[in-house]
Structure formats: structure tokens, C-alpha cells
Amino acid sequence: MPLSVCGLVRKAVQNAEDGKFAVYTTQTARDAKNAFCMKPSVQRNNRNDGDQQRLQQRLDELESMIRRVFGAVSPNPKSLDVSQLETQAANAINRLQSVRTSRDRGHEKSPNASTLAESMDSNSNRSAGTLSPDAETFEEDAPLLQFFKQAMIVQWDRPVLEREGAVPTGNTRFINCVAALKSLLPNHDDLTLILELTEQFWPIWSLLPTKDQTSLIYQLRPVAVARKFVFELLEKSQPAVVAKGFLWLALCIQQLPRDFERQCPKLPASLKHLIASYLSGAEYLLTMDDELGGSIEGLEALGLVTKIYINMGKPRKAWVVARRGINQALLLGLHHIDDTTNQQKKRTWASFWQLDRHLSLVLGYPCAIADSHPSLSIEQTGGSTEALIAHKMSLIAGHIVERNQNHQKMDYFATLKIAQELEECRKVMPPQWWEIPSPDMSLAALYNQQTTKIIYFQLHKYLHLPYMLKATAEGNFVDSRRPAVEASRKIMEAYQTLRGHNSSMTILCDLMDFQVFSAVIVIIINLLSEPASNPSQEQTRDWELVSYTTRTLEHVAKVMECEVARQAAQLQQYILQAHEGVYAGPQSYEAVIPYFGKWRALESRTEVV
Fold first, then answer.
1. How far is CA 364 from CA 219, 400, 551, 580, in A?
2. 26/160 same-domain check
């Protein structure tokens, strides 16, 4: 008796239960014309009644499901001259396979400056994490679709090109993202000018255009080498390497002076939009790198992302990226350090756990890696003085974090112990660091020296700040008030030394400006808590230091696009005016200082909350 489609289903399920593999030809399907579903007789081959009943129930359910599917699909009048049942089957396959195609076509957009993020999000949602075309092949070979196709007289297949374009593969997503980012590259002349204006800052970044800075071609033509470096990275096939290229270029754009857009009116977008687009594109590429298992290049790119966020004054985002870097480094095994580990892996691992500790101290979060981990031992520093100092200060930052996290159980003795650790760390610093820098000192050397001093005194300030205000009412904590104020003075002095360099005024680092601003607030709190009737010479010097730092921040805000410096200078200017009796600001002024507190100025008084 001819078999209908329902009969084919029953026979296929029976053979599957018996472990057989059934193949039905086109002729078998042709014999099914005008046939009705017949229940085949099922022989009892050493099976009990319960098994037969369950099998029969499954067959009935499958038959009912197929009838509902065919009944819900209207036949196409333009289809081939075949039976109604086969026409419905063809339309069912057509609809099942075209659902995603129509959805993808509705999302197609040409990437440009205004739709970069949307384009990448669309690709991400459509791909659903698929990095291989195997997912498309799997759907085409799904058992139910294959069964429908075998039951048809005429086989219907989507074109191969259409199938390949339905779901963006890993390579397609990568190509689309890079193409969108390349459309936002400045032209040759503008890119050359960007590199010329930022060349002096390259040595202070973690990624250089060339590993051999002593080569003759780099010394004679550094801009040409850097331009070639950028273009070579952008042509690589690894997502993380391309991300490094765009992030390094974003760092360059971040350091441009405020009036640069007037010099280059043909930029593809504003500087802020370029940085945001490069960041968004790099994040997308790094997500692809994570899906592929991660890489050292991906970790280096994440390090550049943290630098960009720190320059923006966004420590929380930098902390999140740093934690992501630590997790990826753990997955890659970078924490397993021994004598055979190369210096690149050691530096990469150290940069992330150290940055995590300093940012956790600022934000009030616990650290990710404990002191007891072998990779944090002093033997893993590499031997250089700078690396040893950074290692010691990062460990101390973790100790302060631990004290702050357990402040209810920690007594004041823990603070004094950490203060002793800081004094031991100072002994490691070269004596010439405490002298006035020579005028011919390079920007990189001056930057590393002064920022290290700022971090060192910042640790002093964070160590004693919780007890600073208690010292007024309780004599037991006088030893914390004085170090906190003195550390704040040293932070401001190191900042002035750094900004006093011919080129360092244009170094953008909103987080550093904020740290200096918080040191100024500590000085002002100390000044306002002391009697003003008979100011001492120390108080006079402190007010002069506050005034000088205010002018420096104002100048930084004028030269660079630095919102933190502008707001800090404005608040400090209001405070200075109130101190001198010439206040010209709002009658009621309130400013919220992140990670510090609230400053409120009223007509009759000024207070810190």
C-alpha cells in the first residue's frame, strides 16, 4: 500500500526505534499521491505491551503535529503542479528557512560614523555568539527539514550565497567591524598631523610604535614609523591586534590640544565621537577575541582601554576593564610564573593586578588577588628599581584596602604598621628623585618620576585620611592628621613639578587631576578647621599652594578638553574668593565630590559634608 507523509513519519520513527537507517526516494514520495494516513501494523518483536503503547502514543502525537503544521500553511497557487500535501510541505520548508533571512535583511545597514555602535550591536544579536558557519549547516541538515525535503517530488534549496549571508560568521563580523572603523580613519595629512602632535607622549604609554627605539629609522622618521605601525595593525587578521591599533590611535587623539578640530576641518567626525567609536569598535573586537579563547594581544589592548578610561576620569569603568583583564589573564595561565616565563607575560600580569589594587583603593572595593599568591612575591619584579617600587606600592595599596574593608575589626596599630611599610618603600626610591629635576630631563623620565611620587604620597593620604578629622577631638589620632596634610602638600608639589615641564601641560589625565584636587580639599579642610584670627606662616603657604594649583588646573582646562580640571578649578576659585572676602559665586552653592563627599557654601558659612 502506498505510504502517505504520515506513513513515512511512522516508518521513520519505527526504524529509529529499531536502530535502522531508512532512506526514502522520490519515487516513494510520488506513490503517496492522494493517499490517506494508514496505521501500519506493528509486529511484536519481543516487546511488551507497555513499550508498544508508548510507541503508538508517540506516533499519534507526531502525526497530529504534522497535520497541524500542514493545516496552518496555505498552498501557494503559483507552485508546481503537485498534490496539495506536497505543496503545503514545500511552503512549510520555505517559511521555516526564510524567517531568519527576512529578519537579517531588515537589519542590513551600511556602517558609518553615526551607526557604528548600532551596526555592531545588530551583528552581535544576529550572530548570537556564532563564530563558525557550522551553525548554518546544522540548521540546513536538521532532521525534520531533511524529512520534509525527502518527501517532496521537487527538492528545494536556498542558494548557497543566501545561506552564507543569513548569519554573520566570525570572519564576516570581523570584516564588517573593521570596515566600519576604517571609515572613521582620518585622511593621510590629518593622521600625520595627529602623530606629529602626540609623538612626545608615546614613551609614557604601555604600547610603542616600535620595540627598537634606538633604530636609526625610528630616530629619523618616528612619525612615518608610527603611521606604518598603525596601518600594519589594522590589516591584521586577529581581532585583538586590530583593536590595539585603534586604541593606540584613540590615545593619540585623546592627547590633542583643544583647538585641533579648527586646524583639521575634514575629520570624519568630532574628536569625542572618534574616541567613542574606536572604543566601541575595539570592545566589539575584544569580545570576539574572548570568544576565541583570549590572547596576550587582547590583554595588551585591555590595558590601553584602562588607560583611556583613566584619562577620561572614569575609574569605575577602568576598574571593570582591569577585572576583566585579570580574569582573562587567569584563564590564559599568566599567574603561573616561574623562571621560564617571558618578560612580556610577567609585565602584563603585574600591570593588571597592580592597577586593580590602586583603583580598588580609590573606589573602596576589595582586591582581586591576595598577597599570598605566589605571583605577587617580590622575586617576580624583574630586578629594575621602577618595577620594585611599583610592586611594593601595589602591595601596600592592598594592605590599605584590607584595613578599610575590615575597619570595624582593625585597630590603629594596623595603620601604624602600614605607615612603616611606606617608609621602607621610600628607602628604595633613588635619592635624586627628591631633588629638583634638571631642565633637560626627558618628558618620559619626568612623568614616571613625578607620577610615582604622586602615587606614593596618595597612599599616605588614604592611609591617614579616615583618622584625620578624629584628630581634632581625640588626641590619639594627631599622628594621622599631620601625615595626611603633609602628604597632600607633597602631591600638589609633585603635580606642579610635572605640569611645569614645557610639554607636560598638555598631558591629559583626568584621574590625576582629580587626585590632586582631592589633595587640595584636604588642605582646605585643615585650614578651615584651624583658627583664622592669627594665621601662621604654614597656613599662608598652604593658601598660596592652593591658589597656585588652582591656576594650574585652570590652564590645563583651557589647553585640553578636561572637564575635571575645569570643575575643580571653579570650586577652588569659589573657596579662595570666600576666604579673601570677595566671593562672587552663587549665594547657595553645592558641589558633590566623587569618592570624597559634598561641599556646600552658604551665605554665612562653608561646610563639608
1. 44, 10, 30, 35
2. yes
Q: What is the DSSP letter of 295?
A: -
- Are 197 and 256 within 8 A, CB to CB? yes
Task: For residue 205, tell me if it sits in a domain.
Answer: yes
The rounded Cα 567 to chain-centroid distance in angstroms is 26
**In a shared domain, residues 106 and 193:** no
Residue 598: enclosing H or E segment and its boundaries?
A: strand 597-601
- Of 442, 450, 468, which Cα lies nearest the Cα of 516? 450
Task: Kindly state whether residues 249 and 278 are assigned to the same domain.
Answer: yes
Cell of 58: 508517540
Highest mean pLDDT of the ranges 42-56, 212-226, 501-515: 501-515
pLDDT, tens digit, for every residue of 331-355?
A: 999 998 887 888 888 999 999 999 9
Structural domain includes residue 70: yes
Q: What's the total number of domains in the chain?
A: 2
Rounded to whole angstroms, the Cα distance separating 203 from 8 reads 73
H helix runs in 31-83, sequence order? 49-72
- For residue 301, give its domain range: 184-311
Q: Are residues 128 and 202 in the same domain?
A: no
| pLDDT of 517 above 50 | yes
- Per-residue pLDDT for 565 more than 80? yes
108 with 254, same domain? Answer: no
**Residue 86 corresponds to which cell in the numbers above?**
506536497
pLDDT above 50 (res 156): no
pLDDT of residue 137: 42
The confidence score (pLDDT) of residue 244 equals 93
Cα–Cα distance, 88 to 84 (Å, whole number): 6
Axis crossing angle, helix 412-428 with helix 478-499, rounded to the nearest 10: 30
Cβ count near 220 (within 10 Å):
9
11 and 156 belong to one structural domain: yes
Using an 8 Å Cβ cutoff, are 230 and 248 in contact? yes
How does DSSP assign 339-355, residue by residue?
Answer: TT--HHHHHHHHHHHHH
**Rg of the Cα atoms in the chain:** 34
Q: Are 461 and 484 in contact (CB under 8 A)?
A: yes
Give the per-residue pLDDT at 327: 96
pLDDT at 121 over 50: no
- 207 and 110 part of one domain: no
Q: Output the nine-digit C-alpha cell for 214.
A: 634606538
Q: Which of 265, 283, 311 is where one domain is finished?
A: 311
Distance (Å) of CA 278 to CA 204, 241, 252, 501: 21, 13, 12, 30
* Residues 515, 348: Cα–Cα separation, whole Å: 25
Average pLDDT, the chain: 77
Angle at CA 498, nearest 5°, toward 496 and 501?
105
248, part of any domain: yes
pLDDT of 229 reads 87
Question: Would you say residue 21 lies in a domain?
Answer: yes
Looking at residue 91, its pLDDT comes to 61
Residues 150 and 223 in one domain: no
Question: What CA–CA distance (Å, rounded) separates 234 from 245?
Answer: 6
Residue finishing a domain among 114, 144, 168: 168
pLDDT digit string, tens, across residues 274-320: 999 999 999 999 999 999 889 999 999 999 999 999 999 999 999 99
Within 10 angstroms of residue 581's Cβ, the number of other Cβ atoms is 6
Identity at 348, one-letter amino acid code: T
